[in-house]
Write a structure and sequence with these properties.
Elements (H helix, E strand, L loop, with lengths): L2 H41 L21 E8 L5 E8 L7 E5 L11 H8 L4 E5 L17 H15 L8 E6 L1 H8 L9 E5 L7 H11 L3 H16 L1 H4 L2 H5 L5 E7 L11 H8 L5 E6 L15 H13 L12 H15 L2 H5 L4 H14 L1
Length: 366
Amino acid sequence: MDTGSGMSKVKSKKKTFLIILLSAIVILLAGWWAFCVKMYEDNINIRTESYKPRMLRVEDFDGLTCTEYSFPSDKGQMLAGYLYSVGTGQRGTVVIAHGFGGGGHNSYMSCAYYFARNGYYVFAYDATGNDKSEGRSVGGTPQGVVDLAHAISFVEETDAVPDLPVVLFGHSWGGYSVCGVLSYHPEVKAVIECSGFNRASDMFESEGKSRVGGVIHALIPFVRIHERIKYDSYATNTAMDGFDSTDAAVMAVHSSDDSIIGIEYGLDKYYAKYKDDARFTFIRYEDRGHNGIFCDPANTYAKEFNAGFDKWLGTLDYDYKAKENKERFVKDKDEYITAHLDHARWSFRLDEDLFARFLDFYDRAL
């Protein structure tokens, strides 16, 4: 009996099976990786524009002046910058980093006005792929840190902005950016981050969790690899890496009911590590959500306007949700908001008690 030949055939079959199995695993992993990258690119690597009927206007803020500039970011794309001021006697410059998905800096103009009328220059900008800035799309979450680093360098190096101490203010994506950028600009004196997160992939993970639940965790390792390929060390640099690179004072503000960026990705994580560090200040809310973190709870204008808008929807003589009526509804909606939005009331909805705390925080840091 030729047992050697039989054993050889068995080994050959096992080898073939292993090759097929490994090939199948590689194909599945490659397919899953491609799917994860597509989900990231479709949801993060997009261009966004401010919604024109609701855009804030300089003329609605008494005494506010705005001078526009442009400056380059990492790939030579020119970003739109805006220097805001009210009067003279400024004692520092607040650089504002805006959030993701609603266009550029415009929706933060009321924040800029508060700081400007209380003794600060304010430099805001539209990140890559937003509003007036160049770029077919954002690129990825770490681009926020990249663009902010270039914005700070512009403020510090140009003669257009007086040589004053720099402090940072950011919300959501901007909250992550103002913290992470400290690794590259440790000279910054103070940072206020609102509703932010610690690492680049957290924005995709937090929003994804609300849509698909725990499945999102299977995407994150591949998302992180994708960000690392695109952004190298910017992708792995975290907010807490920034904290540990500087002596800047840090204030973190978040609401526990935030459904966009969960508080566990930001303030709770920071509090666990830095609660006994005197340079950190924490403000935790329970009922302000994500976009309402700055708003005065007593200001009811947004609810009033939305109630009127809902009533108007009921008067339409067509199904505004139907695909064939999409363009008609967009036009009608724009016309309704343009005609009915009270810009003065829309522009002044900040919680001024909270902003007084922000102002005191900056003043003490300087």
